[in-house]
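Design job #97: recover the sequence.
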């Protein structure tokens, strides 16, 4: 892990760079593993914790022994997908009673949240708590985080965190990502560092047709040709670009610092690598061979949710977030009892195994207004200490399922959300802070087991790049430098542009600031050391 002081140092007020090593150690909370609940499958190789046993509501543990809230009012702005419920609904009331804080939600449309976030952070009227997902941290947002939000070190650094046991049980890697501008500012949502992109496939159809799960990119292409029968309206797959990146060992693209890595003494960015071009070329071959479902030729503008046609058997393989493994299973359980989805292990390329790169150990953060009084900060931390309760506790149950009888009912010992539960218990308290990454599906425990085992197998192959786990704020002048690459990738794999166009774009990127940005990252590496393993 990094050895030296931060770029700019933690006391210099620098808005750029990172904080790690000894400087981070002074700031980070003491880790105290939770002892209230033991997972059925403990985390290994960066996986989530897995719970596969029966959820006994009568035997739920208590992780918050006394109410820490002092009855104050705390306003929270957070992204919300769907129609927010009324503020006085039974879920919000029950949570506030448990915590001892009057939390008042200012939910904003998650699809346009970056615009609202920018406007609010530019104003003088900032709510007490603001949730910022990693994907909304472009432009001026990182520097606004540093100037607008409180240093939580006095409340959480070292042994101070022990006042909030559920926060103390959050993994240290997630707290490391919560350091912005030399101070502990974020309350994290921990994540597994194993890639969340899974090549999902129709296991039921594979078994019926006798298809073998491929173990290489060549095998995948051959299988895809075998599966595809356009006249019968059956294609092999969706756009497999994200799996290709993992198969060929392309550095992570969704989180900027992870796109950089030290290779043979030289700092390289993902778009400069042979692996990047090879992954695009292989994905282009799939489109050119006609094995990709026609809907995916439209790219991001596709009109329909691909899961519907996947469930209908129009194509048999596609990449999706690991959460879809469960989501698809649950949604098809009643209407298509033979439906079975599973996740392929990531297949290798060119005769070698895959080398997926680690994702960041936290990606969503809640921040507290720097002008908040100590009473408000303490009440905000009381909220976080409840929302970070582990699976198998009363606090987790209320946070994630709501009130029994109102928001969910028990069917054969499995909590099933009511319509009211589906309308009220979502997108709110879970955004403030979370326990260590957890996978648990009481209705389909075999899916949780399969997901965690997949993460553990893929985690054993996963590498960490030089900047893994660091929270890095790039100079604003470089913020939009790489913005056009995703569209160009999509155009290349669909045959609208050529690999040569990408090579030209990389050359332009270098001259427009890429090489200068490389020097900037090199300085960080020289001063902080590498996180790579």
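Job complete. Output follows.
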């Amino acid at each position: 892990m990094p050895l030296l002081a931060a770029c700019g140092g933690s006391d210099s007020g620098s808005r750029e760079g990172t904080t790690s090593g000894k400087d981070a150690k002074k700031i980070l909370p003491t880790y105290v593993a939770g002892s209230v609940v033991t997972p059925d499958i403990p985390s290994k190789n960066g996986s989530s914790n897995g719970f596969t046993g029966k959820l006994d509501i009568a035997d739920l543990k208590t992780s918050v022994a006394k109410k820490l809230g002092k009855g104050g009012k705390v306003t929270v702005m957070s992204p919300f997908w769907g129609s927010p419920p009324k503020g006085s609904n039974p879920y919000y009331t029950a949570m506030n009673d448990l915590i001892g804080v009057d939390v008042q939600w200012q939910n904003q449309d998650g699809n346009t949240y970056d615009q609202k976030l920018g406007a609010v952070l530019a104003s003088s009227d900032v709510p007490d708590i603001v949730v910022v997902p990693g994907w909304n941290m472009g432009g001026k947002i990182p520097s606004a985080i540093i100037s607008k939000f409180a240093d939580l070190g006095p409340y959480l650094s070292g042994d101070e965190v022990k006042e909030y046991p559920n926060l103390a049980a959050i993994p240290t890697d997630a707290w490391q990502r919560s350091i912005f501008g030399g101070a502990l500012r974020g309350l994290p949502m921990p994540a597994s560092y194993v890639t969340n992109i899974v090549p999902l496939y129709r296991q039921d159809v594979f078994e019926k047709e006798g298809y073998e799960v491929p173990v290489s990119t060549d095998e995948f292409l051959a299988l895809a040709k075998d599966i595809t029968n356009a006249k019968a309206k059956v294609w092999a797959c969706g756009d497999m670009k994200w799996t290709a990146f993992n198969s060929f060992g392309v550095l992570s693209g969704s989180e900027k610092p992870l796109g950089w890595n030290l290779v043979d003494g030289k700092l390289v960015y993902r778009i400069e690598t042979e692996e990047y071009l090879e992954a695009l070329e292989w994905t282009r071959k799939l489109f050119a061979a006609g094995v990709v479902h026609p809907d995916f030729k439209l790219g991001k503008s596709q009109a329909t949710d691909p899961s519907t046609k996947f469930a209908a058997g129009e194509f048999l393989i596609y990449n999706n977030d690991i959460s879809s493994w469960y989501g698809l299973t649950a949604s098809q359980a009643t209407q298509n009892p033979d439906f079975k989805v599973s996740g392929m292990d990531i297949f290798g390329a060119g005769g070698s195994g895959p080398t997926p790169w680690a994702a960041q150990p936290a990606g969503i953060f809640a921040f507290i207004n720097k002008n908040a009084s100590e009473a408000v900060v303490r009440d905000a931390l009381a909220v976080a200490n409840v929302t970070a309760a582990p699976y198998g506790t009363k606090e987790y149950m209320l946070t994630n399922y709501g009130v029994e009888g109102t928001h969910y009912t028990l069917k054969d010992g499995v909590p099933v959300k009511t319509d009211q539960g589906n309308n009220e218990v979502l997108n709110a308290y879970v955004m403030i802070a979370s326990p260590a990454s957890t996978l648990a599906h009481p209705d389909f425990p075999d899916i949780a087991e399969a997901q965690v085992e997949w993460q553990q197998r893929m985690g054993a192959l996963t590498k960490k790049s030089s900047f893994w786990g660091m929270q890095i704020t790039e100079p604003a002048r470089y913020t939009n430098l790489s913005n056009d690459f995703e569209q160009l990738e999509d155009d290349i794999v669909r045959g609208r542009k050529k690999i040569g166009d990408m090579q030209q774009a990389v050359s332009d990127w270098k001259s427009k600031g890429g090489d200068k940005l490389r020097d900037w990252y090199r300085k960080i590496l020289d001063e902080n050391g590498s996180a790579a393993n």
